[in-house]
Write a structure and sequence with these properties.
Blueprint (H helix, E strand, L loop, with lengths): L1 E2 L2 E6 L6 H21 L6 E6 H6 L4 H9 L3 E6 L4 E6 L2
Parallel strand pairs: 2-3, 3-4
Antiparallel strand pairs: 1-2, 4-5
Length: about 90
């Protein structure tokens, strides 16, 4: 999903393990962020997640601390209504 405030892609977290899905999403985010920086592109990158995943899994201490410490910006998205619920810019 390309947004006028930055770039992001919706991550589904539908695998057997939300933790493994998080590892994959965070890894992609890190590679994209590094690529933008390397190319000198001044565009904010967002990890976009469904509101249900955000309210359950992303509130766990280890996940929340990791995102905060590593300055990962988030878009919380309600898939059924196709609406952005929250922007978290770090």
């Amino acid at each position: 999903m390309l947004l006028n405030r930055g770039a992001g892609a919706i991550k589904s977290f539908i695998g057997k393990s939300k933790l493994n899905d998080f590892y994959e999403a965070k890894g992609q985010y890190d590679v994209y962020r590094r690529g933008l920086k390397r190319e000198g592109i001044q565009q904010k990158l967002y990890l976009t997640v469904d509101v249900d995943v955000f309210e359950s899994f992303f509130q766990k201490a280890l996940i929340a601390e990791t995102l905060e410490e590593e300055m990962v910006s988030l878009i919380v998205y309600d898939i059924p209504t196709k609406r952005i619920v929250q922007w978290i810019t770090r």
